[in-house]
């Protein structure tokens, strides 16, 4: 059993006085670990306290590494805490200067009770496109508006690691609903949770995280646990859970739609919605739907792309009634771009990654590898290059400057760079116009496959954790950044591998199901049915 598999199940083990960790530390009857478990994934845990590489290899942590982890943990804790506190203070000072609810003259959510049934769409700063539309959700929002049975309620939040919250100043944000009169009580509640954590001694913690008698994950993860079970981060957890409850009550929410993986904000709304008997619909985020067993606290409907995905989830223990096959809503607009190339000449589209922002790789290493890739592309005659940034590569101007430096250092100054928040239609046109789609393990490679484009996946990382699934499924030409990238590009441009082409077509059919542009229609119908059934 690997560490991530173990971490998905360890918390139910009986550890002290015949109680499990879940039973010892809970918030409103919901285990604190359930709120946090996704933060302890290899690609999510902040890099300064991320020891998965050593843990997977069962490598002993050196004295230097332990000292570095011990000093990094409080830094990460306060970085997250004060970043969130800055958001709270900013939105307390700058209340939305427009009516949040048309039936109230007061724009302060603390004094609003809405008589209109609403569908809450939780979304993020980096999901706001340049046109003002919402990535993944806009067609659903439009159709809810047109039907007039329910009112769409867009609620914005800024990711924990992000500092782009000022973009939300004139939008309705989660932070506007914080009840600042209750902060003392929330801090006391968080302190009690922290004291429950401290009561568990280190030998017991090592035992509860022991995969076998001699190997415990506690040695590697204690620094991360000390961050997330600190009074400061438990305070944020309690605050955000209580705020989610408040949003549901004040805005007369009848259903909640989530489009991202189960992060902290999503978990808070799932738990709060269950407390208030509100249905939650979680739209499949990307092609790699998490195939993990359900927990008793996963109170939501999973809206998936295909019957194949549904069967996989059922095999993991998910209730078939909670899985709804709606099709890939994220690809609803793509059908209009099949075989629609509008440009002449050969072109490569390079889709970048937000791995620097996710602390998977350092900025210096990332851009050194980007330069090597750009140099390889530039060495091929009569080949144009477009670069499209990831939506989470923010602030755009700062990221753009780094990529421009990469281009200058390689002499590829004529390359065009597109921001991460261009519309899906613009992005699909870029894919349609390219002859080769180059990526680093992104779901966007599936969009290229749908448009019948050849895909090259470059592993720019030191292991195959992120890109391994593409290589395993054999749906792309692949190369490691240390290998001959130019040769791999030339091979992909020739695209003579018929077996690979067949694999790609079969993969798209299995994973995406029917791509008819009507997934949003099916989702809206489901929202209405569940909202009506529940009330």
The top-level CATH class of the domain at 334-512 is: Alpha Beta
Q: What is the total tally of β strands?
A: 18
The chain-level structural class is alpha/beta
**Kindly, what is the distance between the CA atoms of the first and last residues, rounded to a whole number of angstroms?**
44 Å
Q: What is the average of the pLDDT values?
A: 90
Helix content: 40-55%
Q: What name goes with the CATH superfamily of the domain at 334-512?
A: Glycogen Phosphorylase B
Largest sheet: 6 strands, parallel
The portion of residues forming beta strands comes to 5-15%
CATH architecture call of the domain at 334-512 = 3-Layer(aba) Sandwich
Highlighted features:
single chain; six-stranded parallel beta sheet; alpha/beta; 535 residues; 14% strand; Rossmann fold
What does this structure look like?
There is one protein chain. This protein has a domain at 334-512: Glycogen Phosphorylase B (Rossmann fold, 3-Layer(aba) Sandwich). Helix 7 crosses helix 10 and helix 10 crosses helix 11. The protein has helices at residues 3-7, 21-24, 32-36, 52-56, 63-93, 138-147, 183-199, 202-208, 218-228, 231-250, 264-275, 307-315, 363-378, 396-410, 424-433, 444-450, 468-473, 485-494, 498-512, 519-534, and strands spanning 14-16, 19-20, 26-27, 30-31, 118-124, 151-157, 210-212, 215-216, 253-258, 280-283, 301-304, 323-325, 346-351, 383-388, 416-418, 436-439, 454-459, 477-480. The longest helix is centred in the N-terminal third of the chain and has 31 residues, at 63-93. Mean pLDDT is 90; it is low at 96-107 and 109-114. The two termini are 44 Å apart. With 535 residues, the chain is α/β, with parallel strands linked by helices. Strands 6-5-9-10-11-12 form a six-stranded parallel beta sheet. It has a six-stranded parallel beta sheet with strand order 15-14-13-16-17-18, with helices on both faces. A two-stranded antiparallel sheet has the order 1-2. It has 20 helices and 18 strands.
């Amino acid at each position: 059993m690997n560490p991530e598999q173990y971490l998905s199940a360890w918390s139910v083990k009986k550890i002290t006085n015949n109680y499990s960790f879940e039973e010892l530390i809970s918030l409103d009857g919901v285990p604190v670990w359930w709120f946090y478990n996704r933060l302890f994934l290899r690609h999510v845990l902040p890099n300064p306290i991320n020891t998965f590489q050593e843990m997977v290899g069962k490598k002993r942590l050196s004295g230097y590494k332990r000292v570095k982890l011990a000093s990094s943990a409080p830094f990460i804790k306060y970085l997250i805490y004060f970043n969130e506190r800055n958001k709270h203070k900013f939105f307390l000072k700058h209340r939305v200067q427009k009516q949040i609810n048309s039936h109230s003259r007061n724009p302060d959510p603390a004094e609003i009770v809405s008589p209109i049934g609403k569908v809450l769409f939780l979304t993020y700063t980096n999901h706001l496109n340049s046109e003002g539309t919402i990535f993944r959700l806009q067609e659903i929002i439009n159709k809810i508006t047109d039907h007039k049975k329910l009112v769409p309620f867009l609620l914005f939040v800024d990711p924990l690691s992000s500092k782009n919250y000022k973009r939300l100043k004139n939008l309705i944000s989660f932070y506007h609903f914080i009840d600042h009169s209750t902060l003392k009580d929330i801090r006391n509640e968080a302190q009690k949770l922290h004291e429950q954590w401290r009561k568990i001694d280190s030998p017991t913690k090592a035992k509860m995280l022991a995969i076998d008698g001699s190997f415990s994950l506690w040695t590697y993860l204690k620094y991360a646990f000390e961050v997330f079970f600190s009074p400061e981060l438990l305070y944020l957890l309690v605050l955000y859970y209580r705020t989610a409850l408040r949003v549901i009550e004040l805005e007369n929410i009848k259903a909640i739609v989530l489009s991202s993986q189960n992060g902290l904000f999503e978990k808070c709304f799932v738990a709060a919605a269950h407390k208030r008997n509100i249905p939650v619909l979680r739209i499949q985020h990307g092609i790699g739907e998490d195939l993990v067993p359900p927990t008793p606290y996963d109170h939501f409907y999973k809206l998936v792309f295909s019957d194949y995905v549904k069967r996989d989830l059922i095999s993991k223990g998910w209730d078939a009634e909670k899985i709804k096959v709606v099709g890939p809503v994220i690809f609803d607009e793509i059908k209009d771009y099949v075989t629609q190339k509008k440009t002449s000449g050969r072109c490569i589209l390079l889709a970048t990654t937000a791995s620097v922002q996710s602390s998977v790789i350092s900025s210096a290493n990332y851009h050194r590898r980007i330069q090597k890739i750009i140099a390889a592309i530039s060495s091929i005659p009569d080949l144009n290059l477009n670069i499209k940034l990831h939506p989470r590569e923010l602030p755009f101007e700062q990221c753009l400057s780094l990529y421009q430096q990469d281009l200058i250092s390689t002499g590829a100054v004529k390359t065009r760079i597109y921001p991460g928040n261009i519309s899906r239609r613009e992005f699909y046109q870029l894919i349609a116009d390219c002859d080769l789609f180059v990526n680093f393990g992104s779901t966007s490679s599936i969009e290229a496959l749908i448009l019948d484009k050849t895909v090259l996946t470059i592993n720019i990382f030191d292991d195959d954790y992120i890109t391994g699934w593409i290589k395993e499924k054999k749906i792309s030409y692949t190369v490691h950044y240390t290998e001959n990238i130019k040769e791999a590009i030339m091979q992909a441009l020739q695209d003579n591998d018929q077996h690979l082409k067949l694999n790609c077509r079969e993969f798209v059919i299995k994973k995406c199901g029917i791509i008819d542009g009507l997934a949003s229609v099916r989702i809206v119908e489901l929202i209405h049915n569940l909202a009506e059934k529940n009330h």
